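Weekly structure sync, notes
Attendees: PL (lead), two postdocs, one rotation student
Agenda item 3: pending single-chain targets
PL asked that the sequence for the first pending target be pasted directly into the notes so everyone works from the same version. It is reproduced below exactly as submitted, 191 residues in total.
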Amino acid sequence: MVGDINLIPQEEVTEQKKSKAVKTSTYISLGVLLLSVLISAYFVLAISNIKTQIVKIDADITSLRVQITKLSQVEISARNLDRKFNILLTLFKERPKYSLLLEEIKSRNPEELTIESLDVKTNQTTVSGIAGNYIAIASFINNLVSKNFEGGNPKLKDVFTSVTLNSVSLEKATNQVKFFIVVNFDEAKLR
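Predicted structure, written out during the meeting:
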């Protein structure tokens, strides 16, 4: 058996071990650095992806807010339709007497005036609409309260007891006058 003979001086062996330790620590340091770079790149990409998702979600939120705002108009319309539907139910229940009332209002309505809505309650109705001028509104009010109005049903000449003009405004865009009046009537005369 041949024995290993180490002819390298002890100082050289120590230098080789130091050199080997430096190489190993350099490789480990480079590995850790590479691992740190990879982890940093992952976090940068993840943060970039999260920011992109935040921007997209913010855009979606803005879009949904716009849709909700648009739906508010639908809600208002639905409420108005419900109110009109309830008025129609009341009219159908009380049809004979309210038909007379509506015919009388129609007969006293000047041509320059358009009734847009009519809400009938017990002994009172509210009327809103548009007119070509203020004189048409005044004429309509005078026709309603006039006991000597010619036209309409003679039995109903004094069915309207009072008229109150609640609001009147000029629409500059259309040059028409919007109005809202409250008309009190004697329900007993409609039977």
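Discussion points:
- The chain is about 55% helix and 20% strand.
- The radius of gyration is 45 Å.
Action: rotation student to compare against the earlier draft before next sync.
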